[in-house]
Write the structure tokens for this entry.
Amino acid sequence: MTNMPGLETIIEITYLIATALFILALKWLSSPTTARRGVFAGELGMLLAIAGTLLHHGIVEYKWIVIALVLGTIIGVPLGEVAMTAVPQRTALSHAFGALCVTLVGTAEFYLRTPDVPRFMMGVLSLEVILGSLTFTGSLMAAGKLQEVLPQRPITYKGQNIVNLGLLGVAVVVAGILVAHPEKTQLFPLIVGIPLLFGVMMIIPIGGADMPTVISLLNSYAGLSAAAMGFVLDSKLLIIAGALDGASGLILSINMSKAMNRSFTNVLFGAFGQEQAAVAGKQEARPVRSATPEEAAAILAAANKVVIVPGYGMAVAQAQHKVRELYDALTKRGVDVKFGIHPVAGRMPGHMNVLLAEADIPYDKLLDMEDVNGDFPQTDVALVIGANDVTNPAARTDAASPIFGMPVLDVDKARTVMVIKRSMGAGFAGIENPLYYLDKTLMLFGDAKSFVGSIVRELGGGHE
Amino acid sequence: MKLDLLTSLYVFMLAAFIGFEVIRRVSPLLHTPLMSLTNALDAIAVVGAIILAGEYHAHGAMLAKILGTIAIVAATSNIVGGFLITDRMLKMFKASGPKKP
């Protein structure tokens, strides 16, 4: 191909344009009005980069590439069309796929380059396969838990953190030996195998409510492993895409850990879900006030301002469309209805927003915790649907509470609080919620979907 | 080699800073689509897999072909699925329209 000296330059230019398009894609994602343009920019960049790569003169055989591209598309389409409630597990699965790709390429690169792998190369290669393989099994485990094919309950045992950190430590030591002596190829399977095991062990103690943090963290690992792959292959495009993904996962992880009042190091070392079994048992039968759908409807109809606080329970009950009918019925009566969304409500960052947007609730009615908390004192009714710990006022007032210091939605400052809940059972963390015993609180016992449906019927709305 | 490496580190550092600044501005409203979009972009690793699967290798050709092909499948499914679902999600986000009587 000496007669085509410009080809390499053309490929590099497609990569350069792709990089710019990727950054623009993320920039446009900052606002819902430009976000879809961002997706288009991303697609264009991806298309350019792949087309450029296929021109690469080193490629001698296209058969398998084409087969793989077609097969990947066949698998990818159904993954792009899953129901919105399944988005968390789909996301976890895609982290696993990304990590799988990186790990396989890293492994192949090692065996192709051995025995003379330069030291620095060996270092980043180790980082690539360690991060890649632990993200692969970790994400598969997370997806399994979210899909409920694996037990969701956190499984803990004594010395768990020591075992886990020990495993990771051994992998790092082996990687160190390989950097010093890259010719010891028989050690290489260890820096793939041990992190594969570590990924499983890391997710075993994780319960459902910690999933938003874990998914973000796995996102960050997937990005960093891809960036390491970029160093190995000397691909600036890959370094940049990996760094962007890594940064995004890191920002989300920090947001999530702040929203759960965990320190970031606590999150980094996978020490999730430790305090969970802590408080339970001291449950006494205190009186609560409950109400029927008719009473709830009357109070809502008389309100001027209502804030609805959704949680994972709303997603489980598939109640978002009924909630939309309630929103319609109240809005029609001139009630101002907004939604207050806690950062860790649901199973991944932004989960509630997507479900409510799917139910056609305008996004300007969906408010973050910081934006909505100031509104509660002027709110007539705060309606909590399937959320528990994120509304617990003990996080503000009771220093003995395990969630003390966690930022919560101040629903107790509203004039009336209504909580739709199946029963008086404690929440995920087994922490009692004093909110339920306040004089201003009305408990609405029942399934979220049918209860909201009953309220809507009382208000004379609904589409059935 | 040394110089290349240093350039790569500079590129990584600058990209990380840009990433932080750009992504910090993404509203929590769109954090789920953000994750699916960055995931699709991250699957640009497919370019490495394509070269691995397609290049001539004097030794280890079989290994490179098998691992490279599986890697392309995994990355392509992320690209296709990731862009599809991100766009589907973003289509759902609508502002409240003009008030009808």
Summary: Residues 119-146 of chain A form the longest helix (28 residues).
